[in-house]
Structures are given as structure tokens and as C-alpha cells.
Amino acid sequence: MRIIRKYGNDILASDKFKDARKQIHHYKSNVASHSVLTAISGLRICHALRKFGIKVDMRRVVRTALLHDLGMVGRDDLYRNSYECCLRHPVNSANISKQIWKGIDEKSVAAIKSHMWPLSLHVPKTREAFVLCMADKAASIKDLIKKTL
Ligand SMILES: [Fe+2]
Ligand SMILES: [Fe+2]
Q1: Which pairs count as long-range contacts for 98-106, CB under 8 Å and 24+ apart, including other chains?
Q2: Which of 10, 70, 73, 139 could bridge 38 with an S-S bond, Cβ 3.0-4.6 Å?
Q3: How far is the CA of 69 from the centre of ligand 1 (A)?
Q4: pLDDT, averaged across the chain
Q5: How far away, in angstroms, is 25 Cα from ligand 1 center?
Q6: 3-class secondary-structure state, position 102
Q7: Does position 127 have pLDDT exceeding 90, yes or no?
Q8: Ligand that lies nearest to the alpha carbon of residue 38, given by its number in the listed order
């Protein structure tokens, strides 16, 4: 958690992230805890890749992980159904991220937009985007296992 605070404290402290604690996600989780779990999973993938000499920008992975699902906050008012939410929340998350992370670059915006691949047509194009995409899936599986165990 120390490295997540180091890289993402401003995001964790933002009003939108606080709201994310109240948004149910994957039945028994919420958007905030899922996002922290995604950051933890992302860091684990980064460390594993480093053993193979593949360097990934961990700061970018942590920050995009914390931001990637903020477009889900208030989902019942924003989207007509789960399918629409699934398709549209990555772009909304990217737009919200621009308000929280002043100076966010295109690589990070693109990573957030592509985190639902292959369910969405935005394909991850950088290492960090691919790590975010995989970390989100790993965290989602953990959330769902929590539900059934
Ligand atoms: Fe998502
Ligand atoms: Fe997610």
C-alpha cells in the first residue's frame, strides 16, 4: 500500500475516489477497493515482468489503476444497462481522470480507455496499458471469488 500512496495519494484523496467507496462493484466489492486491488495486481505483474528484463512504468500503472473505473461511479444514473456501462465507462473514466490528474498524458488516457479489451474495441498499445488490462481482470476475478467463498 505504501507505493500506491506514494504514486497515487492525490487520487486516493480526491472526492471522486471517496464516492467510489460507495459504488458497489462485482457484487460484494466497491469501485475504490477494486481499483486499489487492480493497482496491487498491476505492481505484481510489473515485478514479474522485471525478472524477464521488461521494464514497465509502475507509477503510470498505479495511477491508471486507481482511475480506470471512476466512470462507473453513479452507473445506475449514467447507463441504461450493464452492457452500455461495460462499453462506455472506460471513456468516461478517462474524462474524469483528466479532471483529477492535471497534465495526464495521452499514454495514460489511452491505457484507461483500453482496460476493457477485448470486450471493447480500444486495444492496449503500450506495456502499461496491457498490464492495466491484465491487472483489472485479475482483480475482477478476486472480487468475484470473494463473492462465492
Ligand atoms: Fe472497468
Ligand atoms: Fe476494473
Answers
A1: 99/16, 100/10, 100/11, 100/14, 100/16, 100/17, 100/67, 100/70, 101/10, 101/11, 101/63, 101/67
A2: 139
A3: 5
A4: 95
A5: 10
A6: coil
A7: yes
A8: 2
Question: Is the pTM value of this prediction over 0.90?
Answer: yes
Cβ-Cβ contacts under 8 Å for 115 (sequence gap 6 or more) = 64, 68, 90, 93, 124, 129, 132, 133, 136
Q: Which ligand has the shortest distance to the CA of 141?
A: 2
Closest ligand to the CA of 72: 1
How many angstroms does the Cα of residue 141 sit away from the middle of ligand 2? 10
pLDDT of residue 28: 80
Please give the CATH superfamily to which domain 2-148 belongs: Hypothetical protein af1432 (1.10.3210.10)
Ramachandran sector of residue 124 (left: φ over 0; alpha: ψ -120 to 50; beta: rest): beta
CA of 112 to the centre of ligand 1 (A): 8
Which numbered ligand comes closest to the C-alpha of 136?
2
Where along the chain do its domains lie? 2-148
- The rounded distance, in Å, linking the Cα atoms of 120 and 53 is 30
Above 90 in pLDDT, residue 42? yes
